[in-house]
Please model this.
Amino acid sequence: MTPEEQLYAIVEQGLCIGCGLCQAVAGKDTIEVVKTTTGVERPIVVGELDQATVDQIYDTCPGVRVEGLPEALIEEDTKVDNVWGPWRRIVKAWAADPDIRHQGSTGGVMSALGTYLLKSKQVGFVLHVKASTTNPTFGEPHISFTEADIMEGAGSRYGPTPPLLDIKSVLDRGQPFAFFAKPCDVAGLRNYARHDPRVDKLVKFTVAMVCGGYGAPSTTEGFLDHIGMKMDELTAFRYRGFGCPGPTRAEAGEKVEEAHYLDYWGEDESMWGLPFRCKVCPDGIGEACDLAVSDTWIGGSPNRIDSETDLGENGVIARTKAGEDLLATAEKSGFLTIERDITPDHMSIYQPHQMRKKYAAWARHQGLREAGQLAPVTSRLRIEELSSELFDGTNDAQRRGTVERVKIGKASESAPEKVV
Ligand SMILES: Cc1cc2nc3c(=O)[nH]c(=O)nc-3n(C[C@H](O)[C@H](O)[C@H](O)COP(=O)(O)OP(=O)(O)OC[C@H]3O[C@@H](n4cnc5c(N)ncnc54)[C@H](O)[C@@H]3O)c2cc1C
Ligand code: SF4
Ligand code: SF4
Model:
């Protein structure tokens, strides 16, 4: 295969999540991660892609390589739960400032932490994302220096969002910073640290939301049909926030439509329209981060009645000493309210879908390999061990189901073609 074919294999075999890292690695004159005809952001080769660069992409791309917390960050007294990974403390918490709590996706913990890190001058800025200025349902990288900047990025972006697109120029700033993103984005940044020593020097904190997957374009299009709006007329789009989960809100100039989170995602997990890579994700729980932040709805989804009064409560897993200290000092400085300590068992009650996916990941990856497809290379995620706890029949069903998906084309995407 040529280097270009090797890069496109990641996309065509359904493993690209559009994080943007390959554009940063290769340079924008070689690869551009842009919206393609499939409705998502994918890499397009625009220059001469050589073998050394594509090898570096395979070593760093979180679509094909996902590792758990670096061993150096696992202390002797850090506990490791087979499903929930390394943890030092798990709490139920929310932003102490009621406005941040309200505007945040769940209880505003990530925005409160960003604000605290900036105000306490522990970092020069936070790299996270905000709604795209060109495609309202997408997200784009966002660098925050102030509380107002942080709040511009509050809320979950369920559409395609490439936080690592400009990571090299972010590192060129030479300032300490925090990175807030999805687990796969953090996995990509950790992978890239092996190639650029500035990552370990400058990235002081990594915080990820617990992530069940982003919305496939068909999910967003189906939702827009449901509320009688069209993608190309949108001037603004908010998935959630301003309540927990808060309304999903679409704007087209003066016209505004709001609907419930469940109108976007469906009433239960079986209806979630996720990209293939998210279905075989070995780490939606932010194993490589200092802190992982989640919802706390029992069973994994909100309900319409409780949503009217839910103020938002996050589950927060501190995995490292730095994460544990950040939780404690943010509480002491009045930025976070910690209600109480909880356990991995509580996390499984709030996130049954994460538990199921973690158990199924190894067999699904075996199915990909059996079908001759690329599968993510993983380490320190315990997925083989978890799989060995399942009955053989369950593993077989997961493996065969994946082989079948490959056969009927559900694990593939067409070659990336830029929308002109
Ligand atoms: C794609 C996706 C799937 C999710 N799935 C789950 C799940 O399965 N279980 C669960 O408990 N929670 C899930 N969430 C997380 C949940 O919606 C909240 O984001 C999380 O609880 C943090 O809430 P908060 O109030 O602290 O966030 P906020 O204070 O609103 O801060 C959110 C932060 O996340 C950043 N961000 C938002 N969207 C993205 C994105 N697409 N990529 C990178 N950074 C982003 C923002 O820039 C902001 O800094 C998901 C979120 C996303 C984006
Ligand atoms: S997952 Fe990220 S690094 Fe990998 S191919 Fe897609 S955009 Fe590039
Ligand atoms: S489910 Fe996994 S691959 Fe998909 S967006 Fe979330 S962390 Fe990334």
Q: What stands out?
A: The chain has 18 helices and 17 strands. The mean pLDDT is 97.
